[in-house]
Design brief:
The chain is an alpha+beta fold and 159 residues long. It is 48% helix and 16% strand. It contains 6 helices and 3 strands, in the order αβββααααα. It has a 3-stranded antiparallel β-sheet, with helices on one face. A hairpin with a 5-residue loop joins strand 2 and strand 3.
Length: 159
C-alpha cells in the first residue's frame, strides 16, 4: 500500500471512529426563517442506514447537519466527512461539492484535478472507494440523505 493510500485509509478510519455531526439534534425552529428537513436513507445492497437532519438559514447557508446511522466504516465516515464539508457552506457550494463527490465516485480510482480535490478536502480519501461499485453506494448514502433533506426542507426551492 502506498503512502497516499495509507493516508486515505487513515482519514476514513478516523472519521468512522470519531464522526462529525453524529447524534440527531432537534430540527431548527422556523421562527427565525430557518428551514429544516430530515431524510432517512437505506442502502438495500448492504443494509447501511442514515437518518440526517439539516438546518438552513434564511440566507441559504447550511447552519447545521446532524445524523445517526449504522453500517460499514465507509458509509459512516463518508457522512462524517460530508458534514464537516457542508456546515457553514452556502447551498450553491453544497451543490458544487455534491457534484464533485459524485464525479470522484465515477473516477474509477483516478481522482480529480487538483482544484476539485482541494475543494473536497478529506473527501478525496474516498478515491480508492470509487474502484469498487458496491462500495460507491456506501459512500454516496449520506450525500443522498443530505440532498433529500434539503429538498424536504424547501431550501432548494428558494435557492
Amino acid at each position: 500500500m502506498s503512502t497516499l493510500e495509507q493516508m486515505y485509509q487513515q482519514v476514513i478510519l478516523d472519521h468512522a471512529k470519531r464522526p462529525v455531526g453524529r447524534g440527531l439534534v432537534d430540527l431548527a425552529s422556523t421562527d427565525h426563517g430557518h428551514l429544516a428537513g430530515e431524510s432517512h436513507q437505506v442502502n438495500p445492497t448492504c443494509g447501511d442506514e442514515v437518518t440526517l437532519r439539516v438546518d438552513v438559514t434564511p440566507d441559504g447557508e447550511v447552519a447545521g447537519v446532524s445524523w445517526e446511522g449504522q453500517g460499514c466504516s465507509i458509509s459512516q465516515a463518508s457522512v462524517s466527512v460530508m458534514t464537516s464539508l457542508v456546515e457553514g457552506a452556502p447551498l450553491t457550494e453544497v451543490a458544487r461539492l455534491d457534484r464533485l463527490f459524485h464525479d470522484l465516485m465515477s473516477s474509477r480510482g483516478k481522482g480529480l484535478d487538483d482544484d476539485a480535490e482541494d475543494a473536497l478536502g478529506d473527501a478525496t480519501a474516498f478515491t480508492g472507494v470509487s474502484q469498487y461499485p458496491a462500495r460507491i453506494k456506501c459512500a454516496l448514502l449520506g450525500w443522498a440523505a443530505l440532498k433529500d433533506s434539503l429538498a424536504r426542507s424547501g431550501a432548494l426551492a428558494t435557492s
